[in-house]
Amino acid sequence: MLYDAVVFDLDGTLTDSYEGIANCVVYALQKMGRPVPEEAALQKYMGPPLVYSFMHYDGMTEEEAVYAMQLYRELYVPSGWKQNRVYSGIRVLLKELHENGVHVCVATGKPQETSERILEYFGLMPYIDAVAGPTLQAKTADKTMLIMRALEGISYRKAVMVGDRSTDITGAAGYGIDSIAAGYGYGEREELESVKPTYYVQSVEELSRILLGYVPAQRGYFITMEGLDGCGKTTQMDAVEHALIQRGYDVRRSREPGGCAISEKIRDLLLDVRNGGMCDITEAILYAASRAQHVREVIRPALASGQVVLCDRFVDSSIAFQGGGRELGVELVQKINAPALDGCRPDTTVYLKLDHQTALNRRSAASTPDRIESEKESFHARVEAAYDLLVGQDPQRFVIADARKKPEEITQEILEALYLRMEKAGMA
Ligand code: TMP
What we know:
This protein is of the alpha/beta class. The protein has three domains: 5-14 and 84-211, Rossmann fold; 18-82, DNA polymerase, domain 1, CATH 1.10.150.240; 221-424, P-loop containing nucleotide triphosphate hydrolases (Rossmann fold, 3-Layer(aba) Sandwich). It is 50% helix and 13% strand. It is built from 18 helices and 13 strands. The strands form three sheets. The chain has a six-stranded parallel β-sheet, with helices on both faces. Strands 10-11-9-12-13 form a five-stranded parallel β-sheet, with helices on both faces. Helix 3 crosses helix 4. It starts with a strand and ends with a helix. The mean pLDDT is 95. The structure holds thymidine-5'-phosphate (TMP). Thymidine-5'-phosphate (TMP) binds at residues 229, 255-257, 271, 287, 312-313, 317-318, 321-322, 372-373.
């Protein structure tokens, strides 16, 4: 490995913090009755300390800039800091560096406390040896000093600074170490090249090739979500998808029946209320047929390329609805599905547990029922019983969430369980 100590900048290098920072800058400027810059001009606020930016880009006096900063924090402290996203490929790069004995540090113009909170929230802290950032009160932050602090007490042979703004590159030169300009961040190419970084990269893949000599592969991970119609699955799918993307995973969201063109056509057949004459075994085989295509066309290739597949329903729905609801029995439904699945199995299945009466009440308040939703209450009671049996038989695979709780609480519980399992499975 070329370098045994790597100092990363945070905003625009490890995370894309544009949304949160831009929203809070706009909020502060509006509150002060100042003009709001265009989106392109807002990019400049990413990286340097904000008091500096308010003075240089908005012509504020220092006193005004300090006040703007207070306004900014009104929004940033409660929620703005979470509007952030780890760049794709960064998690696995940091993990790989850490596991290869490379010292991984962060030197950022963002206050240290906030930076640590962000790195903790996104689960990156286990790979990081040291974080150096200014105090909450500091108005400026000299990058050379921050790099020095980040590397303090660490013994290394050759260090490099990775950052997306010219101050990162000049800061590295000031400390006498190499630098890599992260061209995928907020700095313009001319800004970065004018200060002569040792390397200029346009992607995390290129960065990985310099730091590791290769692009590390993330293993795929298969998550499915199950429950009765009306259990709040869509809300949780949205929230979990959003959180996984923010954490830096490459997410492939899908659904069953459906998920690809052929399977979506089968879905239409299955859910069409005009197909009331469909016999139970036809129904079970059609669900399996849709699944066979989906597994081969979408799920397997996505997992093989290291994506996290997040699927709304999978074979458990067939076991519960056709096996239980239609009373075809678990064994027959498993037999029908065996060639469709061909060994494809979720790593984790989230079950949103809700009794069938409450689910029914929620459904009738929401939308026009499809063919399955229109079934009698006894059908849904059998589906519920079948799910309970399934979950009990495979507690390792299932995460059970109480669907009566508040949506945000449910999401929180699901995510905590998911991250633990993903980590156990060896994922970054
Ligand atoms: P959705 O409304 O959650 O998209 O699901 C469509 C309906 O299909 C839902 O009522 C559950 C049902 N279903 C089965 O009966 N068997 C299955 O294998 C799947 C995937 C769904």
